[in-house]
Sequence to fold (397 residues):
Amino acid sequence: MAQVSNWQLGRDMEYPYEAPRPEKQFCMIMDTNKCIACQSCTIACKSTWTWGRGQEYMLWNNIETKPFGFYPTGWDVNVLELLGEQEWEGDVYAGQTVFEAAPAGERVLGWQPDQADWAYPNIGEDEPTGDATEVTYIPDKPHSMMWMYYLQRICNHCTYPACVAACPRQAIYKRPEDGIVLIDQEQCRGYRKCVEACPYKKSMYRPTTRTSEKCIGCYPRVEGSDPLSKGIPMETRCMAACVGKIRLQGLVQVEPDATWSKDPTHPLYYLVQEEKVALPLYPQFGTQPNVFYIPPRWAPRPYLRQMFGPGVDAALERYMRPSRKLLAVLQLFRASQKMIFKFDIREGPKVGEIQVGGAPLELFNDTAIGYDSQGREVVRVSVEEPSFERRGKVNSL
Ligand code: SF4
Ligand code: SF4
Ligand code: SF4
Ligand code: F3S
Fold:
């Protein structure tokens, strides 16, 4: 059992697998406020990687409606119930992780979905909750209404993967160059301990090959070996296809203790570590996931706190009243297929003033510039969208 530091828990924890830390970590942010559940991401992944026999119910990317949507059924409520009390003392997690709560003889606390659990991938879609007889809209308190929101889910390429810890064959590994977690199909013998252990249920069994499979982080694109990318790291298929422009992805530099190296001009570092506007999903599981979420503004805060941890209120405060810099950086979401490694802001004129929470918020037409891994400019996007007026006849009528 290794003693490791987990910055998302604010404390050290025990992890039953010793391995050197990767130099860089593949990670991403999803803005839940912007997702329209079009499932373009789901289909982009499925049509690229899981269209074969035995993969019919295999969705490495899925979008589910919270609180009633699950894939597989009950994936999160089951593990939350098994885990028991999950208290935070300030920013420090006082409960047990899935490693610390493992039953005797097991490395990870988990459960095994049955076939039926995988058979309803979009169950609960668009089902709201709340008391319809008491719906009153209170300005600035949108969660006084009935609510639901979309949760975008892929493998978290966890810093401390439960799947890696649980596999008796050591068939799963975390790549040193980018932290992407892969299952070696030659090594795997279908024991499914990874499926049982992953608290996010993102390792999936394929009966035709009798092996498990999972999101591969579109590693050819991340490596720059996709023919389109000409050697430059690109965003993955599910990211590049996102119609709602809710996603931003990249590689961050990590220290030997698994904290992120200070890099305030990296958009992911800035959003996750400085602004703290994007939060991990169920940090209490202890795997230190690398997918981060800007929480939905309109869902009840207690529900969001149990899902994203104690940083929810501060994150939403900053998101709803963004600084000039934050508003500009948020424009970089899905602005380029190439991964952005550095950003810069050019200040523009004041273009408006709105009321947020009863106080004025000034808006400026600032421009965010994104640079690729070679320091070359790949995108330039401003707060105010440019508009163009077409002149004369525009169609055949
Ligand atoms: Fe493994 Fe699950 Fe973490 Fe993915 S989300 S790395 S499958 S533990
Ligand atoms: Fe699928 Fe690639 Fe997205 Fe993983 S990163 S869910 S493999 S499209
Ligand atoms: Fe949401 Fe984007 Fe996926 Fe559409 S493509 S469901 S907007 S994450
Ligand atoms: Fe290991 Fe999972 Fe295969 S536990 S053997 S990677 S099914």
